[in-house]
Design brief:
The protein is α/β, with parallel strands linked by helices. The chain is built from eleven helices and nine strands. The chain has a nine-stranded parallel beta sheet.
Length: 266
Amino acid sequence: MTSKILETFLECQKEQRPALLTYTVAGDSTKKQSLEIIKSIAEHADIIELGFPHNTPIADGEQIQESSHRALKNGIKLPDVFHIVKEFKKSKYTKPLILMGYFNLILQYGPLAFLKKCKEVGVDGLIVVDLPYPENKSFADQCKRHGITFVQLLSPTTSNERIKKIIKDSHDMIYYISMLSTTGGKLKVLPKKILNNYNKIKKINSSKKLVIGFGITVKTIATLKKADGLVVGSQLCKEITRSLHVRQNPVTNLSRMVFVLKRKII
């Protein structure tokens, strides 16, 4: 059975464009508004990534850390994250949703109980930032048994031998980190070089959908539109912060920003 994530990539491929993936943090700026935000951006985004906040987000830059801080200050817990997902899935929006976060929260919840709950509320995929390959093989297999896509990560320093192994064991989607940085860093690598690295990975197995993340903004997204998918996160989190500071509605502003991002890649 084809996953909703793969179906979405195939639909975008027919339209000859990359999938647009957006990332926001669950509970930012409030639990209610967080749900409103993902509903509003689902009008334009193809796949929704939702982070479960963590107090020591090692891979995240300043913008996402601020979002996580606001969410934690609001008392957001994993049951709240599941509630947001459940409500989103009950809405008119049928976009796939990927949860993204850190393994110790999953471990505290209980990995099997976590996956059962993900399946129950309609989570389509998981990205676990601090659970690398091959240590993640057992958990990835459990994800597959629950019908959830486990997204493996690749970076510019991943060796060819390791890339081949990760691709062989990967599910429908792989996440390529464009540069050695935390999220939200300025794109320090030329798009041409990113795409060269990207194409080398695609040649190993073109059937696996490969998305690019880190450093992608309204200004840079068009230069990378040959990819299967592009992830924008930090700029959205930064826009929530800006909107709050100037007392504007983050829901409206993010919807407008994601509309602009989509226009840049079609």
